[in-house]
Write a structure and sequence with these properties.
This protein is mainly alpha-helical. It has helices spanning 8-11, 21-53, 60-78, 82-109, 117-144, 175-197, 199-216, 221-247, 255-269, 274-299, 304-321; strands spanning 14-15, 165-167, 171-174.
Length: 330
């Protein structure tokens, strides 16, 4: 099983000792920032395709796990560097997005000018099927690729100038955690720049508002919808590598954590708001990890179910009192 919210002692992140609950909260805050950055990076691709194209992509979590699983097996079998795979998997994710679009989305919304609830529900079901196919791939792959593991774990330590940890005064943090968090931030900033400051980004926003008008000025809405899906899948697949480096282990069932948390983050940050989604990831990451560590104080072990319950309680509260999210517009 995948380990989420790993204890700091297991992977080398050490917080200055406090008493009982104080230690748990300190651990949760430190881990939550790093974990939240990874979650934010994963969710950015979802807010793009959901908030812009109104496609509730239930395969999004599976794409992230697919990237993490494949990267882990390449590290084990080929000795590949996972952070170099992050760049390569941006390309692999683009290919997966192309397949996802024409296999699950194009026939439903490709030539539709206005996407209604009917089309949204249809894409939800087709992307669910695509995700199930990806989930099944990991259990078929060992029969095709010798050495492929369904629950791979990696040992990866990143050093800068020969140093693998950094002392922040109040905590000692592995360098790889800092790099992963910075890459998560970079994913969010690059996505924001793409959507808000480039011609393609303006086209993506335009097709969400009125694809018929876009066609009248000579731009093919189908190609823009394809591009949006490709970018979303690319970000999801590559972010799965960041998730792998953070956790050091992964399994197909990680989708049952990544997908729900990604949906909560998108709602929390604001549907279609890229920077809001990333900040929502940081907020949820901290809440999730603090809950995990706090339950270990009172119950003796980390209770993932309780942390998930808290996350979904946040979702319910947001939908009732601020459905547009913290940074979304009415």
């Amino acid at each position: 099983m995948v380990t989420v919210g790993n204890h700091w002692a297991q992977y080398g992140c050490r917080v200055m000792p406090l008493e009982g609950l104080g230690t748990a909260v300190a651990n949760g805050l430190i881990e939550g920032i790093f974990y939240g950055s990874v979650l934010g990076a994963v969710a950015v691709g979802l807010t793009l395709i959901w908030g812009v194209m109104k496609v509730v992509n239930l395969a999004h979590g599976h794409l992230a796990v697919f990237g993490g699983m494949l990267a882990a097996n390449l590290v084990i079998m080929r000795g590949s560097d996972p952070l170099l795979l992050f760049l390569a998997f941006l390309v692999l994710g683009a290919v997966m997005g192309f397949i996802l679009y024409y296999a699950s989305i194009h026939k439903i919304i490709g030539k539709i000018d206005i996407i209604t609830l009917k089309e949204e529900m249809a894409t939800l079901m087709t992307t669910f099927g695509f995700g199930i196919a990806l989930f099944g791939f990991h259990y078929v792959a060992p029969r095709i690729f010798q050495g492929y593991s369904t629950e791979p774990g990696i040992t990866y330590s990143l050093k800068i100038a020969g140093v693998s940890t950094i002392d922040l005064g109040f905590a000692v943090v592995p360098v790889k955690r800092i790099i992963v968090a910075l890459l998560g931030l970079l994913v969010a900033l690059a996505s924001y720049y793409l959507v808000q400051r480039t011609t393609l980004g303006l086209m993506i926003q335009a097709v969400a508002q009125d694809s018929r008008a876009l066609a009248l000025v000579g731009i093919n809405p189908v190609m823009i919808k394809l591009a949006t899906t490709v970018i979303s899948a690319s970000l999801a697949t590559a972010s799965g590598v960041l998730y792998l480096v953070y956790t050091s282990s992964i399994s197909p069932t990680a989708e049952f954590i990544l997908a729900p948390l990604s949906f909560v983050i998108v709602v929390l940050g604001g549907l279609g708001n890229i920077l809001g989604t990333y900040i929502g990831g940081l907020i949820l990451g901290v809440i999730y990890e603090v809950t995990l560590y706090s339950t270990s104080v009172f119950l003796g072990t980390q209770q993932q179910a309780i942390a998930l319950a808290v996350a979904f309680a946040i979702l319910v509260v947001m939908l009732v009192f601020r459905p547009q999210g913290l940074f979304g517009k009415r």
